[in-house]
């Protein structure tokens, strides 16, 4: 396989520097399929790759593996020829779609707004969606209807602790902390990135008037935050709202009632050129988006991450259970 990769890289470098750069990034990821390599080579030659095939892409975490598998199976069941390439990094997937190597992906409003469009303004969920839709239209990318999936940050507690404290919102939790006084301990697990980000821990503490002392904040690998919550080693932890471990470890998400965390609503994103060739995609993908919400996504993530079920089976079961195939 290495000679094939080397040959494709040389061909792309000779014929198209932009495509060569994309191919070089792709080759750095050993799990990427030959389909993407071939597509990059086709771009270098200035030729369309599989013009009649809908190329579906997905990122490299459980939720995205499920969504991309689901989309490929769904469109194939509707009579469309599909090709699936998943396991991509977020930036690589975006670059592949912008360079016409992928046709359909699922992305998140917060990611597109903050990471790809560099918008620092704090916006609500609908405002974020409308802004991203307008900005990406200029790049030839069409955001279809947003799903009910909002995979944003949240603060979680072990259920026993949350029920004992009688809190369901971050404001209520902060009030309990302040009432407990300075001498009380409130171990709070966060990942190192969030602890250091200028839009992370410190502004969160300021907005909710959370009196965390330095000794309270425990910086861990993101996966270990869930373990610490499961083992009741911390009172509070930073998690993602649709992670399967929220359900699997019986955690309670505290409502972000002051709306600190940005919206990360998942939506199907299609190249304008692909949509012009296959206008039926809009209705099909909007119907799929309408069937998805946080509860459904969390349950599917749980089935894969905790239940160890195959991604393709979980995706197919959802489609069948909702009468989509």
Question: Helices and strands in order, then pairings?
Answer:
Layout: H1 2-15, H2 17-27, H3 34-45, E1 54-59, H4 62-77, E2 82-88, H5 90-98, E3 104-108, H6 109-116, H7 125-137, E4 141-143, E5 153-158, H8 159-165, H9 170-180, E6 188-191, H10 192-196, H11 201-208, E7 217-220, H12 222-230, E8 236-240, H13 244-248, E9 251-254, E10 266-271, H14 272-277, H15 280-290, H16 294-305, H17 311-321
Parallel strand pairs: 1-2, 6-7, 6-8
Antiparallel strand pairs: 3-10, 4-10, 5-8, 5-9
Helix pairs in contact: 1-2, 1-3, 2-3, 4-17, 6-7
Written overview of the protein:
The chain folds into two domains: 50-150 and 265-321, D-Maltodextrin-Binding Protein, domain 2 (3-Layer(aba) Sandwich), CATH 3.40.190; 153-254, D-Maltodextrin-Binding Protein, domain 2 (3-Layer(aba) Sandwich). Helix content is 52%, strand content 15%. The protein has helices at residues 2-15, 17-27, 34-45, 62-77, 90-98, 109-116, 125-137, 159-165, 170-180, 192-196, 201-208, 222-230, 244-248, 272-277, 280-290, 294-305, 311-321, and strands at 54-59, 82-88, 104-108, 141-143, 153-158, 188-191, 217-220, 236-240, 251-254, 266-271. The strands form three sheets. A five-stranded mixed sheet has the order 7-6-8-5-9. Helix 2 runs antiparallel to helix 3 and helix 4 (62-77) crosses helix 17. Mean pLDDT is 87; it is low at 1-49.
């Amino acid at each position: 396989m290495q000679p094939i990769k080397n040959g494709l890289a040389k061909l792309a470098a000779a014929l198209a520097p932009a495509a060569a750069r994309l191919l070089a990034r792709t080759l750095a990821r050993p799990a990427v399929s030959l389909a993407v390599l071939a597509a990059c080579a086709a771009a270098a030659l200035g030729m369309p790759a599989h013009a009649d095939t809908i190329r579906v892409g997905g990122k490299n975490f459980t939720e995205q593996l499920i969504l991309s598998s689901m989309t490929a199976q769904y469109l194939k069941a509707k009579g469309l020829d599909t090709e699936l390439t998943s396991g991509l990094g977020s930036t690589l997937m975006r670059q592949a779609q912008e360079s016409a190597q992928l046709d359909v992906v699922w992305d998140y409003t917060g990611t597109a707004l903050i990471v790809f469009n560099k918008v620092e303004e704090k916006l609500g969920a609908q405002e974020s969606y409308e802004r991203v839709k307008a900005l990406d239209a200029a790049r030839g990318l069409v955001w279809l209807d947003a799903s009910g999936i909002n995979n944003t940050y949240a603060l979680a507690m072990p259920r026993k602790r949350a029920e004992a404290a009688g809190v369901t919102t971050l404001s209520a939790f902060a009030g309990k902390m302040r009432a407990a006084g300075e001498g009380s301990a409130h171990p709070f697990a966060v990942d190192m990135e969030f602890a250091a980000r200028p839009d992370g821990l410190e502004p969160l503490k300021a907005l909710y008037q959370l009196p965390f002392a330095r000794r309270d904040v425990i910086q861990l690998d993101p996966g270990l935050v869930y373990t610490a919550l499961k083992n009741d080693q911390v009172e509070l932890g930073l998690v993602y709202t649709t992670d399967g471990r929220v359900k699997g470890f019986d955690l309670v998400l505290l409502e972000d009632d002051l709306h600190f965390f940005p919206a990360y609503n998942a939506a199907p994103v299609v190249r304008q050129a692909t949509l012009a060739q296959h206008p039926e995609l809009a209705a099909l993908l909007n119907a799929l988006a309408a069937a998805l919400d946080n509860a459904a996504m969390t349950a599917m993530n749980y089935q894969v991450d905790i239940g160890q079920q195959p991604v393709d089976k979980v995706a197919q079961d959802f489609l069948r259970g909702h009468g989509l195939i």
